TrEMBL record:
Reactions performed catalytically: (6R)-5,10-methylene-5,6,7,8-tetrahydrofolate + glycine + H2O = (6S)-5,6,7,8-tetrahydrofolate + L-serine
Gene Ontology process terms (BP): glycine biosynthetic process from serine; methylation; tetrahydrofolate interconversion
Pfam families reported for this sequence: SHMT (PF00464)
Enzyme class, UniProt record, top EC level: transferase
UniProt lineage: Bacteria, Candidatus Amesiibacteriota
HAMAP family: SHMT
Site (Plays an important role in substrate specificity): 217
Free-text function comment from the UniProt entry: Catalyzes the reversible interconversion of serine and glycine with tetrahydrofolate (THF) serving as the one-carbon carrier. This reaction serves as the major source of one-carbon groups required for the biosynthesis of purines, thymidylate, methionine, and other important biomolecules. Also exhibits THF-independent aldolase activity toward beta-hydroxyamino acids, producing glycine and aldehydes, via a retro-aldol mechanism.
UniProt gene name: glyA
Occurrences of domain Serine hydroxymethyltransferase-like (ranges): 3-370
Cofactor(s) essential for the protein: pyridoxal 5'-phosphate
Positions annotated to bind (6S)-5,6,7,8-tetrahydrofolate: 109, 113-115
Name of the protein in question: Serine hydroxymethyltransferase
Family to which the UniProt record says this protein belongs: Belongs to the SHMT family.
Entry-linked Gene3D superfamilies: Aspartate Aminotransferase, domain 1, Type I PLP-dependent aspartate aminotransferase-like (Major domain)
């Protein structure tokens, strides 16, 4: 089959199955059309008004619109919209705040942190910087007293707060108080929760973090990209230099335009209601799964995701759920003794199904189906049919 045919099949897969990977979402048609536009054809190394290529009159305007919208939406004075994605954006944030070989401190992967937060040995953040990792406690929660103890012993130059599999509210204020005691910078990576922050259902790190990074394609519903923010003029210059020419060449202008469109959408009242519904849906899904006897890390959720501790066999569970049309990812649980390739749990999120308009009643149905599949409590075949019927009732929005 050719690529066009495969794209059509992928569109059908996305429409006929439940996308419950918490980092995924459906971008609007307006975002996608900006992203697939002629802007793809243009080279624009540099920044608006300071390009190394001619012909950037309109590109400059588009990038300035994206910057202004992000400044307004998040309430920050400086924004860089050029990072190609979350990982290079974190690399730029680290490069802007510490020198190679200096100490950084982030949350361990199995505790819900991200690879780019200092995961040892195999990542740039663990290889080129001295990395110390804090962990969650026995209940799966970040214990800020323990973070403080470790920070005071280790004295990292940069402390990273931000998660990829943590179902609770992050205390940016407390984290920044700890960092102040040791004169460390704070990087808040709000990739997962940015939509919840602008939607008013998660506290903002503005005022507490020196640098804020978010990807634009998760709860924000934009194109695959990232933005970096700060209110510190000195760090602003360092961030710009770290992104270009430090790590990147020409910005992906079509993505910048998609980010501008997504940021306008995220500033609407409709988006605030959407963010609220994401959280409500996650809470109901968690409550229902608990009723079926599932063990959730931290005992539940305050945000858009939940991690189910199956005690092993996360991979099989994810494969069986995919067979039934429920798409999740297998995931480590805190202090997991199983290997990352087949960890103890699965991770579920509500952003994409909420984009389709699903609410509490649908979460109850989904929890029942997860129980049927994972606990082999029913007939898998009928779940597949029922999932497809539900998907038909809630088409992917355009
Ligand atoms: C918290 C966090 N930071 C950074 C990233 C990296 O983003 P990307 O996959 O766009 O490189 C992710 C992606 O899942 C993430 O969850």
């Amino acid at each position: 089959m050719n690529v066009d045919g495969l794209i059509k099949l992928e569109a059908r897969r996305q429409a006929e199955t439940l996308q419950m990977i918490p980092s995924e979402n459906y971008a609007s048609e307006a975002v996608k059309s900006a992203q697939c536009s002629v802007l793809n054809n243009k080279y624009s190394e540099g920044y608006p008004g300071k390009r190394y290529y001619q012909g950037n009159k309109y590109i400059d305007e588009i990038e300035n619109i994206a910057i202004e919208r992000a400044q307004k939406l998040f309430g920050v004075s400086f924004v860089n919209v050029q990072p190609y994605s979350g990982s290079p954006a974190n690399a730029a944030a680290i490069m802007a705040t510490v020198e190679p070989g200096e100490k950084i401190m982030g949350l361990r992967l199995s505790g819900g942190g991200h690879l780019t937060h200092g995961h040892p040995k195999i990542t740039f953040s663990g290889k080129f910087f001295e990395s110390v990792q804090y962990d969650v406690d026995a209940n799966g929660l970040i214990n800020y007293d323990e973070v403080e103890k470790l920070a005071i012993i280790e004295k990292p130059k940069l402390m990273i707060i931000g998660t990829t599999a943590y179902p609770r509210i992050l205390d940016f204020r407390r984290f920044s108080q700890i960092a102040k005691k040791i004169d460390a910078y704070v990087l808040a990576d709000i990739s997962h929760i940015a939509g919840l922050v602008v939607g008013g259902v998660h506290p903002s790190p503005v005022g507490y973090a020196d640098v804020i990074m978010t990807t634009t394609h998760k709860t924000l519903r934009g194109p695959r990209g990232a933005i970096l923010m700060t209110n510190d003029p000195d760090l602003a210059k360092k961030i710009d230099r770290a992104v270009f020419p430090g790590l990147q060449g020409g910005p992906h202008n079509a993505t910048t335009a998609g980010i501008a469109v997504a940021l306008a959408e995220a500033g609407s009242l409709k988006f605030r209601n959407y963010a609220r519904q994401i959280v409500k849906n996650a809470r109901v899904l968690a409550e229902e799964l608990i009723k079926y006897g599932f063990k959730l890390t931290t005992g539940g959720t305050d945000n858009h995701l939940l991690v189910v501790d199956l005690g092993g066999g996360g991979k099989d569970a994810a494969i069986n759920l995919e067979e039934a049309g429920i798409i999740v990812n297998y995931n480590a649980v805190p202090h997991d003794t199983h290997p990352p390739a087949n960890p103890s749990g699965i991770r579920l999120g509500t952003p994409a199904v909420t984009t389709r308009g699903m609410k509490e009643p649908e979460m109850k149905l989904i929890a029942g189906w997860i129980n049927e599949i994972v606990n082999r409590a029913g007939e898998g075949k009928s779940v597949k049919v029922e999932v497809k019927e539900l998907c038909k009732k809630f088409p992917v929005p355009i």
